[in-house]
UniProtKB/TrEMBL annotation:
Keyword Nucleotide-binding in annotation: yes
SMART domains: AAA
One MF annotation (Gene Ontology) recorded for this entry: ATP hydrolysis activity
Gene3D superfamilies for this protein: P-loop containing nucleotide triphosphate hydrolases
Protein name in UniProt: ABC transporter ATP-binding protein
Organismal lineage: Bacteria, Bacillati, Actinomycetota, Actinomycetes, Kitasatosporales
Domain (ABC transporter) ranges: 3-235
């Protein structure tokens, strides 16, 4: 299923945070959003997963306006992993993942054996089957993140919207989660802070600064030293991974202007 974000503007608290932004994620594609802190990535994603309404423009799934769909229909197509997602209540892990089945349940809303099987498979896919009986609040940050990804998978959506899915994960789990997201074959739109992870895993990147896209395209065409200096204020060096041959980015601070000489 294709995602089209068309001329989207988003206002929060009377301030325009996303300006006239257009991007596309093709069916089965993994599209990354990168940009400095506060550039508007989460605001854009919140509008895509319908926590915010557009001030102008639209988000379309295979051409259909997502904000015009009823909540249940939308939730059968799109699952989200918000930043700092969670709950105040100490549900068990199995109960949290079962919430992913709600859009598929009619009538009494009671989960059947088929729903339970979907949830168990989703937990197994993220390597968290052993956590099913644990209280969600007792989990580590990384364990919580995996359970929330399982909830999104249990929703059996066509599209995944992820805001920093590798937050709280150790390096092995970061690679694992991105491989899992890739293997899901869903259309994925994700914000990522780690530019090397983004470059290796995404088909295309959009760089966002001050609520606008400033560069788009295949990762290594986009992440030039000039752009990284301009947008992130860092000096970037491209090196080759000694085993895979993939381009890797190394960073240091841009040379700082010398302080004025004291008299
Ligand atoms: N509810 C709000 N009220 C006021 N300002 C907000 C609100 N939500 C976001 N902002 C501001 O909008 C800007 C964009 O925030 P957003 O969270 O979208 O950025 P981001 O690119 O996701 O940042 P990060 O990489 O730090 O997660 C920031 O300056 C933020 O402080």
């Amino acid at each position: 299923m294709r995602i089209d974000v068309e001329d989207l503007s988003v206002d929060v608290a009377g301030r325009r945070l996303v300006h006239d932004l257009t991007l596309r994620a093709d069916s089965g594609g993994l599209v990354g959003l990168v940009g400095p802190n506060g550039s508007g990535k989460s605001t854009l994603l919140r509008c895509v997963y319908r926590a915010l309404r557009p001030a102008a423009g639209a988000v379309r799934l295979d051409g259909a306006d997502l904000h015009a769909m009823d909540a249940r229909a939308g939730a059968r197509l799109l699952a989200a992993l918000p930043q700092e997602a969670g709950t105040e209540f100490d549900f068990t892990v199995a109960e949290i993942v079962a919430l992913g089945r709600l859009p598929h349940q009619r009538g009494s809303g009671r989960a059947g054996a088929a729903d339970t099987a979907v949830c168990e498979r989703a937990l197994a896919r993220v390597g968290a089957a052993h956590l099913a009986g644990r209280g969600f609040l007792s989990l580590s940050g990384g364990e919580k993140q995996r359970v929330l990804i399982a909830r999104a998978l249990a929703q059996e959506p066509k599209v995944l919207v992820l805001d920093e899915p590798t937050n709280h994960l150790d390096i092995a789990q970061q690679l694992e989660v991105l491989a899992l997201v890739r293997d899901s074959r869903l259309t994925v739109l994700t914000a990522l802070h780690d530019l090397n992870l983004a470059a290796v895993h995404c088909d295309a990147l959009h760089v966002i600064a001050e609520g606008r896209i400033v560069a788009s395209g295949p990762p290594y065409e986009v992440l030039t030293p000039e752009l990284l200096a301009d947008v992130f204020g860092v000096r970037a060096h491209r090196v080759r991974h000694p085993v895979s041959g993939a381009v890797q980015l190394l960073f240091d601070r841009l040379p700082q202007p010398a302080p004025p000489a004291s008299s």
